[in-house]
Amino acid sequence: MPGTPPTRFVYLGPEGTFTEAALRTIPAAERGLRTPARSVPEALEAVRAGEADAALVPLENSVGGAVPVTLDELVTGAPLVITREVVLPVEFVLGARQPTPLAAIRTIAAHPQASAQCRNWLRANAPDAVIVDVLSNAAAAISAAAGEHDAALCAPIGVSRNQLTVLADKVADHPDAVTRFALLTRPGRPAEPTGDDVTSLAVSIRRDQVGALLAVLTELAVRGINLSRIESRPTGEQLGTYVFFLDCTGHVAEPQLGEALQGLRRICADVRFLGSYPRHRLVQEAPVPSPPGLANADFADSAAWLAQVRAGETA
Amino acid sequence: MPGTPPTRFVYLGPEGTFTEAALRTIPAAERGLRTPARSVPEALEAVRAGEADAALVPLENSVGGAVPVTLDELVTGAPLVITREVVLPVEFVLGARQPTPLAAIRTIAAHPQASAQCRNWLRANAPDAVIVDVLSNAAAAISAAAGEHDAALCAPIGVSRNQLTVLADKVADHPDAVTRFALLTRPGRPAEPTGDDVTSLAVSIRRDQVGALLAVLTELAVRGINLSRIESRPTGEQLGTYVFFLDCTGHVAEPQLGEALQGLRRICADVRFLGSYPRHRLVQEAPVPSPPGLANADFADSAAWLAQVRAGETA
Amino acid sequence: MPGTPPTRFVYLGPEGTFTEAALRTIPAAERGLRTPARSVPEALEAVRAGEADAALVPLENSVGGAVPVTLDELVTGAPLVITREVVLPVEFVLGARQPTPLAAIRTIAAHPQASAQCRNWLRANAPDAVIVDVLSNAAAAISAAAGEHDAALCAPIGVSRNQLTVLADKVADHPDAVTRFALLTRPGRPAEPTGDDVTSLAVSIRRDQVGALLAVLTELAVRGINLSRIESRPTGEQLGTYVFFLDCTGHVAEPQLGEALQGLRRICADVRFLGSYPRHRLVQEAPVPSPPGLANADFADSAAWLAQVRAGETA
Amino acid sequence: MPGTPPTRFVYLGPEGTFTEAALRTIPAAERGLRTPARSVPEALEAVRAGEADAALVPLENSVGGAVPVTLDELVTGAPLVITREVVLPVEFVLGARQPTPLAAIRTIAAHPQASAQCRNWLRANAPDAVIVDVLSNAAAAISAAAGEHDAALCAPIGVSRNQLTVLADKVADHPDAVTRFALLTRPGRPAEPTGDDVTSLAVSIRRDQVGALLAVLTELAVRGINLSRIESRPTGEQLGTYVFFLDCTGHVAEPQLGEALQGLRRICADVRFLGSYPRHRLVQEAPVPSPPGLANADFADSAAWLAQVRAGETA
């Protein structure tokens, strides 16, 4: 029911990963029911089927890039919309069953994306350890707790859940690395604009990439809309056919973005609206101002002027 | 009073020129009062002052180009709008007091623009005649009637008014040459769209010509608006500062042109609306279809889609 | 013969107009032979026929706009190129046979473009005088000298030639009004770049105005070329078909403009090169700097980089 | 040594995957030395260090999208260039130790990307089997051969290497799915153009996405260059900062692409050339023709014209 805050949350499991940590930053989720799902498709299916009110899944990582399965799921099946984003600093910990000098560690269990983001740190601090690929951050922690490996590279939440000892914390090659998560619900009227919002879209273009992509960007540029993200994903049909995921500055209820959306709708093979929601900023910074003449107030002014011209009241 | 058909017409005189001939193609003017003015500014002033309901003045000629004084007058002083255009084939006649073989003519009175449009014809048919510049087509006819010159290059209407004999008719280097006239009134609600309309604008841009003019054309192109005319006029301030006169396909009441107009309003230093009115076609030809996705129906469709998205009814 | 300075000059006459005054600012013309022509076409024909080395004709006026006959002549007939521009302040004088109080003047002879540029001054200073149209500034001075009219609005040079008394000087509504003249010769290798040059072009586009003109401007913008002038002229074929006259910043010998010219050549129906020559500045002002990455040095750098990439020396 | 065909090949291992199969389609590799590497970085490091002449690694999959690690490696460390691409149909097989009815299979080992590409097939044909994630296609085959799981979803080459029985072949949800591999070497002069080439680039833009990406695409569009691929990857610095991977039609030795490359070099923060090489087409289809005026011949024509203009030979 639109307007009713969600109470039943599902998230990409297992328990003890960054996604659970991200979910728990949302007060309603901290109070509500939290159920891990085995995969992103399973999480989204739970919302589509009405078994959950909202799903939290990872969208992208500032080092590893987009999470393909999430993007692919968002453009197939029944529509879902993003109602909230959560940006979480990526800070791995190195955990072990007991205190161990780094030099004594022979094997470290890690999800390949985790070890990729800590490659330099591992090379500098545990040069002799063998990195063993496992299938999730949680699996890494569990395997270290079970004694299968000497240590695990995992999320802080994995340490507490498995009673591990922290050998090193804030492990990351990029100190500013973050992961961005999306809270997805069934479609409903978006919340009111806050003045610092993001609107997510999936846009399918026809095959002539240069011309069609130029046209998409021109529709945005003409209305002064900026992009904070652009990702291409294959449509699965053939090489070179893409759907683009765009994160635009602004809110669908605003005239500026509304006009741009209409323009995209006219020229693109398909546009799927994926939600307007407040931007989550870890560091407070002012939104980028609109180019001259392209603020929402200018759109209102030009609409008023056109009304006068149409009425013959002015020329 | 908007809606009331004009009955008092003023036009660029003197009597006996192409402008009077153009005015008399308008039924209401044929029935109404027709007063010649000594100049374009005088004609327009009469309408601004309420002494006339409408003024017919030349806008451009397919050979000679724009009529600068008309353009300059349209962007200074109180606003006026074009409510009708008249396109008239340019066909001069060579008239004289009595029948004369062309070879016997020694002097021909002609307005410089008239002789310029008939240069090749004159060279071929009256190679020995001296062309004497006079200040209007009507003055040419009058001077021939007065015996000051052997013949006059003038409008057909000048022959009948001055009891001249036609030595040659349909005189013109370009058989398809036309002059385009505008009927100007005080601002009022434009007539309904006909499906084949023109909208005239005067657009002032800031000094960076390439960037600013690119931006203007992009606002039009993005909405599928085509131009049938573009003229630049200096603003009088310094070399390189222009106001552009644009004739756009479409009507201000249509969504396509309305959105483009708002876009121009936002980015230009100034936009003056100069009227939406039916295109006058001498030869019937179908209007150019809109590019794919950019017809008025597509604008209506995209507006309906946006309304749904905003209501949360679809995504 | 390219490289030989011209010695025989022709100019738009009659004697005693601004064009003669402009010609005499060129040292070689002050020393050489100066012959007035009756018209712009006659002046250009003299150069084409080899009877003169160079012709000075007016190109545009900051108030009155382009001089259509000059533009039309530049795109028809054998090619000519601009080798020099002269910019002259427009300062009319009011001359009479004898000293006369302004209030006592009943008739003033004036070329219509001259009276148009002094309309406000005349209204304020000689409100009761009748303005009588004549066919040139020189004709105005001559008619005043002949006693046909009480005074003449003319060029300073017309006063001295006709022994008139100056009743008022620096007469002009726009104190900064200027006229720009072009010195035309038969084609030859352009002089070396000076760092502050203009390149003039005549560009014919196909009928889809918005798209074709956008493409022309994009070719320039992509290379950081700015326009100091853009004028459209009808081709004479039908309404809505234009040739555009462009004055670009830069010199044909420079890589930046050279690449832009090649781009125009590829996409336009026709491009006529009308010369690269030093910009004449009445007031010293620095040339506009190129946008970031688009200076001539950047073109040289990118060419060197490409040569390395092609040689496999770097990637 | 540029020009010397490679003889020592390294590829993304383990043995028995699609990458090995792709490598063996290259005659020189079939004859030469083929060494599996444990990871893409390890394979590329071998070439950089001179221990191998060329490395074959996966670039992208028409269903799964880009292979992030390959893209990231291509823009860090010493430059490597693509000298050849191999496109291979994706056809998984379901293999087992002995012939087994599909209905009797309880567990299937599969790499997550493999099971994702066969999800519908698995649901339809083995609805009751549990899919067990493993870390590579080869690992899946090995685990089935070891009896750890009832069957494996793997590459055909994995079946023969592990003496498995084929329960089903050509398993794939998208019958046209392909994987594209790149053969990488140290930089050298590219092979001659074939008339149907691809040029790969990595382009870093500054932060204003819409404007900067518009500028990149405009540089290509103005020269008639089309894109067959565009991928964005985060730079790792912060969300919203990207490097774009572009596959352009054409060859660096051609004027059309050469000019476009220079344009990108001028406006982008960084451009890395990743090679010009023949397009590998599974199905013969004609290359897309250049837009009017933008073929290589038109570039040659416009260069010749400019040379004439600069020499003063024509105007």
Automatic annotation (TrEMBL), chains A, B, C, D:
All copies of domain ACT, residue ranges: 201-278
Keywords of the record: Amino-acid biosynthesis, Aromatic amino acid biosynthesis, Lyase, Phenylalanine biosynthesis
Top EC class, one word: lyase
Reactions the enzyme catalyzes: prephenate + H(+) = 3-phenylpyruvate + CO2 + H2O
Enzyme Commission number(s) of this protein: 4.2.1.51
A Pfam entry, by short name: PDT
UniProt GO MF annotations: prephenate dehydratase activity
Site note Essential for prephenate dehydratase activity, residues: 179
Functional pathway: Amino-acid biosynthesis; L-phenylalanine biosynthesis; phenylpyruvate from prephenate: step 1/1
GO terms, biological process: L-phenylalanine biosynthetic process
One annotated Gene Ontology cellular component of this protein: cytoplasm
Domain Prephenate dehydratase, first and last residues per copy: 8-186
UniProt protein name: Prephenate dehydratase
Organism: Paractinoplanes atraurantiacus
Origin organism lineage: Bacteria, Bacillati, Actinomycetota, Actinomycetes, Micromonosporales
Gene that encodes the chain: pheA
